[in-house]
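note to self: dont lose this again. the chain is below, predicted strucutre after it. 167 aa total, dont forget to put it in the shared folder this time
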Amino acid sequence: MARQVREAAADSQQKIASLEREIASLRRDLSAALEQQTATSEILRVIASSPTDLQRVLDTLVESAARLCDATTAGIQQQEGDHLRVVASFGFSRFDTLSSAERYTLGYVPATPGTASGRAMLERRTIHIPLVSGNSGDLDQAVRAGLGRRWRGRVRLRPALFPEALG
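---
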């Protein structure tokens, strides 16, 4: 009889632990959903209050994206011929304090296969670098080393959006 009670107690403890893990997971999911709704609401509010101020909308978009991804930086680059131009950024001290005109001049860089953004543009696909301090595929060694120092092992993701891909 005592053995059956111990087995029932052990089984109950396992079920309780499993339920606690499930509750914790559901709380994380709920928190993430609320963060996403808040970010979406903020972006829609900016669009509604400033329908002609594209820069404000883009700045809000990159800031929200950084917050949702728990990232220290985020940015949007626009393709212009064989170059990329920074049009919005968050967390990059070099660009965040600049006016739109200054961003337009300073944020103009050639798109090369040795950079994540350049590869995304040239290959017209999302580039995912799982761990920038590790082996990042065929990125230039110097680029990989620089990314590893700057991003301290964080994941890098470069989605490529093109008008024809949006329908």
